[in-house]
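Feature request disguised as a bug: please show the residue count (96) next to Mitochondrial pyruvate carrier in the output. Example input:
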Amino acid sequence: MNLLRGFWNSPIGPKTSHFWGPVTNWGIPTAALLDTNKPPETISGNMTAAMCVYSLLYMRFAWMVQPRNLLLLLACHASNETVQLYQLSRWMKAQG
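Example output, currently without the count:
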């Protein structure tokens, strides 16, 4: 019970934006992962490239912000970067 109370009241617990921002952010890599089953012709190269830049910037932010939010924010954007780079490679092959 103390562990749960400690998490609840921590500086990155569920009473803070350090928790809920990253949790809702997981929708981005989830959507990109689900889109891997769609034809590559439906991929927007510009938007996918923008998402790659976005994730790189926020990975840096996740590392620099105090308290560090590695599990939620950094892991989320690293996952998104991976999926977006895969989608970008699919788009490039389709253009080819």
